[in-house]
Amino acid sequence: MKLVLQAERVVAGDGNKPIESGAVLIDNGRIVAVDRQSEIASAIDEFTDVIDAPGQTIMPGLVEVHTHMHCTAEPDAYEKMIIDDDQTLLMRASVAVRKSLLSGVTTMRDLGSRNQIAFPIKHAINHGIIPGPRLLVTGTPITTTAGHCNMFGTEADTTEQVISAVRTQAKMGADHIKIMSTGGNFTPRSNTREAQYSYETIQAAVEDAERLGMTVAAHCHGTVGVKNCIDAGVHHLVHCSWLSSDPTKEYDYDPKLADAIAAAGQYVDPTIALAPLRYDANPGDPVFQPGGVYQHLPQRYSILRDMLDRGVKFIAGLDAGMPQGRFGEHAWVPRTMVEELGVSPMDALVSSTKTSAEALGVADVTGTIKPGKSADIIVVDGDPTVDIKALHTVSTVLMSGHVVKRSGVPLV
Ligand SMILES: [Zn+2]
C-alpha cells in the first residue's frame, strides 16, 4: 500500500540541507520519492495513506551500533546476567528490542549476548513473531578465560582457539564478531588497562572474519589494547578509552594513534552517553556517582574532540543494557556529542544514521532517506538540526514501511 509522510521538513540523513515542506512517498516498504510536498502531491490518490506531521521533522530511523539486549540496563545488570535463566533473558531481550524500535531505532546491533538469546531474538524479529528493529548480532563476545564478559559463554585463549571461536559464531549466524581486547568494568577481576590478547591474535581474528565477510568490533579501554586493535586492522574500536597501564595515571592518549585510526578509516564507537552524568534523563532516578572507567570526564571529552578534529569517524552506540544505558534512550548519544563535544546537531544526526549504517555494512538498505532504500523512517517533534533534543520525542516510526508507531501511539 502507498503511504505519504508530510512534515515541515525532511532531513535525509546525508548531511544535505533539509527539504522544507517535505514529503516522502513510500510503496511496498520502500522509499519511492523524497521531495517538496507540492511535487509529491500528484502521487496521492484515494488509496494512499497520508500521515501529516505539521511542525515536525521526517528523518531516517536511528542506527544503534552497540547494545546488549538481554541485560537490565540497571546497576544490577551483572548480577541478573549471572543468575537469570535463558527464558527470563529472552523475555527481557524481546521487551528491549520493542522499546528501542518505538523510540526510533530502526537498525540495531547486539554487541554481545548469549548465543541462545541473540539468535532466537533475531529469528523472531525476522519472522514477525515479535516487533523489533533490523537486528544484527555478534553472538557471544570472544574473550580470554575469566576475561571480560566470559559469562556470555565464549572463552578462547590461543590464536587457534580465537580463530575457531570466530568460525563458530559465523556458523551459528553472527553478522559481526565482537572481541575483547582489554578487560572491562562489567567483569570482576578483568583488567581494563591491560591487553587480553596480543595484536597477532586479534589480527588473526580479523583476517578470518574478513575471509567470512564479517566485521570485527573490539572492546578496548587501555591504550595498549587500543593500539593492538589499530595495528590488527579491527573495523570498529569500541569505547577507545586510552587508559594508561599505570594505575596512578588516568589517560594515556596518543594523538599519533588517533591519526592512524583516521588514516585507516577505522570507526570508533566511544559510548559517549554512558558516562555517569546522564541520570537527569529520568528525574527521581538514583544518581550514579562518577566512577568506573572514567574519573575525569572533561578530559575524556577533550580527547574525543581531538580525535574528531583529526578525522576519526564516530558511530553511535549507547551500550544499552549496561548500567545507565537504558533501551529507548538512544537519543542521548547524538545529544551528548552535541552538548559535550560541540558537534553540530546535523553532524551528530548523520553519525547516528548514515555513518553508523555504513559501519554496519547496511548503508545500501538503510541509514538515509533515498529512493530505493527501505522505509526505515521516524518523525520527531521540532527540528533536530537546530535542537538535537528533538530526537527524544519520536512520534511516528516506520519499520520497512510498516507504521509501528503513529502520532505517539504504539501499534505493535
Ligand atoms: Zn558493550
What does this structure look like?
This protein is of the alpha/beta class and 412 residues long. It is built from eleven helices and 16 strands. Strand 14 and strand 15 (402-406) form a beta hairpin. Helix 3 (86-102) crosses helix 4 and helix 6 (199-211) packs across helix 7 (223-232). The longest helix has 17 residues, at 86-102. The two termini are 18 Å apart. The model is unreliable at 286-290 (pLDDT under 50). The chain binds zinc ion. Zinc ion binds next to loops.
Task: Write out key terms for the chains shown.
TIM Barrel; 24% strand; 31% helix; 16 strands; alpha/beta; five-stranded parallel β-sheet; 2 domains; binds zinc ion; Urease, subunit C, domain 1; eight-stranded mixed β-sheet; globular; 412 residues
In the residues, how many domains can be counted?
2
Distinct ligands: zinc ion
Main sheet strand line-up: 3-2-1-4-13-14-15-16
Uncertain spans: 286-290
Secondary structure elements and their pairing?
Blueprint: E1 2-10, E2 19-27, E3 30-36, H1 37-40, E4 49-60, E5 62-67, H2 77-83, H3 86-102, E6 105-110, H4 115-126, E7 134-137, H5 159-172, E8 176-180, H6 199-211, E9 215-222, H7 223-232, E10 236-243, H8 255-264, E11 267-269, H9 297-309, E12 313-314, H10 332-341, H11 345-360, E13 377-381, E14 394-399, E15 402-406, E16 409-410
Parallel strand pairs: 1-4, 5-6, 6-7, 8-9, 9-10, 10-11, 11-12
Antiparallel strand pairs: 1-2, 2-3, 4-13, 13-14, 14-15, 15-16
Helix pairs in contact: 3-4, 5-6, 6-7, 10-11
Bound molecules: zinc ion.
